[in-house]
Structures are given as structure tokens and as C-alpha cells.
Amino acid sequence: MKVTFISKEKLLEMMENKERFKLVEVLAQEDYAKGHLPWALNIPADKIQELAPKLLPDKEEAIVVYCSDFLCTASVGVARKLQSMGYSKVLEYKGGKKDWSSAGLPLV
After folding, report:
1. What confidence score (pLDDT) does residue 20 get?
2. What pTM was estimated for this model as a whole?
3. Three-state SS at 65
4. C-alpha distances in angstroms, 60 versus 23, 40, 83?
């Protein structure tokens, strides 16, 4: 399955325009607790099968997944998993937390 990547600029545009989407950090809860992108949910990669149906009930809503940085492969795996579970609009923000904070954007 093809995974569509988006840039931080596109993600910011989606936020600014108040588009309807879910932002999901796929790292472990400890990493999420240290700081995450604004409005992000935490669904660790190893719990996606279990938690996605509860936390992401609308399979038509856009979902943006991310992890730590360009080298992290967890988010692409989760993107593919979500697609296989029937989610139709899954995007991956490849740069993740490192790209976001390097641009001077806030983690919460």
C-alpha cells in the first residue's frame, strides 16, 4: 500500500485551516509524555490494532501519523496498518517531532 507523506508546512496548513483530522504520535507513552505536537493523540505502534477502533472511530476522517524523526520507521508501519484496517485517508508526517521542534514550533 502506498503511504502519502506530508511536510510540516502542509501539517501547519491543515491546523491553521482547522481541517478535520486526527494527529497521532506512534511512539511509546514515555516519549509522548516528554513532549508532543499540539492536539496529538498517543497510540503506540504496538497498540494500534487495539486502540485505533476506540480512538479513531471514523475511518473516513484524515489521520496524520508521526514519530521521532526522518529515520524512525514506526509511523510508516502504523500508516500501513491503519490502511489495512480500512482507514481511507492516512498521511505520514515523516519529519516527526525533531523536524517540528527544529523549526521552532512548540511541543506540548
Report:
1. 96
2. 0.96
3. strand
4. 14, 18, 11
